[in-house]
Specification:
This protein has helices spanning 17-29, 60-70, and strands spanning 8-16, 33-40, 47-56, 74-82, 92-100, 103-110. With 116 residues, the protein is α+β, with helices and mostly antiparallel strands. Helix 1 runs antiparallel to helix 2 (60-70). The chain is elongated and about 65 Å long. Bound molecules: ligand 2BA.
Length: 116
C-alpha cells in the first residue's frame, strides 16, 4: 500500500448459516469482495459462517447496514448440565436460553494491502 492508497478496513463477520446465502448475494450486489469460511461457535459448537470483507474505509457504513439488514437475531434453547448437587449422579440437565446474532462483527485497520 502506498501513502496515497485509500484507507482499508478488514471486516470479520460471524453470522448464522441460515443468513449466509442472502448476505453473500447482497454483498456481491453492492460490489463488496468477500471470502466465506465455514466456522463453528465455541459455546454452542454449531456451524456458523465467517465472512472476511476487505473494503475501503469510506464504504464501512454501507457494509454495516447490509449486515444489519441481512442477519437475524435467533433465540435458541440448549440443554445444559447443572453441577448443583454433591455427587455426579445428582447432576441434572436443564434448558438454557441464549440469543444468537444477528452478527458478531470485528472491524480491523489494514496496515498494508497487496494483490500480487
Ligand atoms: P457461539 O460461541 O456458539 O455462541 C452462541 C451464542 O451463545 C452467543 O451468541 C451468545 O448469545 C451465547 N454465548 C456464547 N458464549 C457464552 C457463554 N460463555 N455463556 C453464556 N452464553 C454464551 P453471539 O454472541 O451472537 O455469538 C455468535 C457466534 O459468534 C458465537 O457462537 C461465536 O462463534 C462468535 N463470537 C461471538 N463473540 C465472539 C468473540 N468475542 N470472539 C470470537 N467469536 C465470537
Amino acid at each position: 500500500m502506498t501513502e496515497e492508497s485509500p484507507k482499508m478496513k478488514m471486516v470479520v463477520a460471524i453470522v448464522n448459516d441460515s443468513d449466509a446465502a442472502s448476505l453473500q448475494s447482497n454483498l456481491n450486489k453492492a460490489r463488496f469482495q468477500t471470502t466465506k469460511l465455514s466456522s463453528s461457535g465455541g459455546f454452542l459448537r454449531e456451524g456458523n459462517t465467517t465472512f472476511l470483507i476487505g473494503t475501503e474505509a469510506k464504504y464501512l457504513d454501507e457494509l454495516i447496514e447490509i449486515l444489519q439488514d441481512n442477519c437475524q437475531h435467533r433465540d435458541k434453547t440448549v440443554p445444559s448440565m447443572s453441577p448443583v448437587a454433591n455427587t455426579l449422579e445428582d447432576h441434572y440437565s436443564f434448558p438454557m436460553h441464549v440469543e444468537v446474532g444477528g452478527a458478531t462483527v470485528f472491524v480491523v485497520d489494514v496496515e498494508e494491502f497487496y494483490k500480487i
